[in-house]
Amino acid sequence: VVGSLYLSTDFGETWIDFVNDLAVLPEFEQWNDIAIDSSGQNIVIVSSYGGVFVTNDGGQTWQNTTAGTD
User: Fold this and answer.
1) Dist CA 24 CA 30 (whole Å)
2) Among the four 2, 4, 35, 50, which has the fewest Cβ within 10 Å?
3) What's the confidence (pLDDT) of residue 69?
4) DSSP code string of 7-63
5) Residue 23 has pLDDT above 60, yes or no
6) Which band of pLDDT confidence, cut at 50, 70 and 90, is reported for residue 46?
7) CA atoms within 13 A on the CB side of 20
8) Could you give the CA distance from residue 31 to residue 4 in angstroms, rounded to a whole number?
9) DSSP 64
10) What Å distances lie between residue 25 and 11, 13, 35, 69, CA to CA?
């Protein structure tokens, strides 16, 4: 689905759509980049035309780190 970001916590058996199912990220046409902390600290960073979003809790909450930087 365009504008979605998915997460699996069971090695790909099932997937959660952060944008449409959980509504924790705004919907954008395109996610430009994604970075996942490989140390297992639950840190994920995604970027889009709407900003750079960071989670420190595996995607439960997200913060737009570019808010107010126009």
Assistant:
1) 16
2) 2
3) 55
4) E-SSTTSS-EETTTTS--S---S-EEEEEE-TTSS--EEEEETTEEEEESSTTSS-E
5) no
6) confident
7) 10
8) 8
9) E
10) 22, 22, 16, 18
How many whole angstroms separate alpha carbon 9 and alpha carbon 67?
A: 29
Which residue shows structure tokens 């889009």? Answer: 48
> Is residue 1 classed as helix, strand or coil in its secondary structure?
coil
Name the 3-class secondary structure at 6.
strand
What pLDDT, on the 0 to 100 scale, is given for residue 27?
61
Q: How far is CA 51 from CA 2, 33, 47, in A?
A: 17, 11, 6
Tokens of residue 34, six digits: 């994604």
Q: Are 52 and 65 in contact (CB under 8 A)?
A: yes
Q: Tokens for 62?
A: 């997200």
Angle, CA 41 vertex, CA 46 and CA 21 arms, to 5°? 50
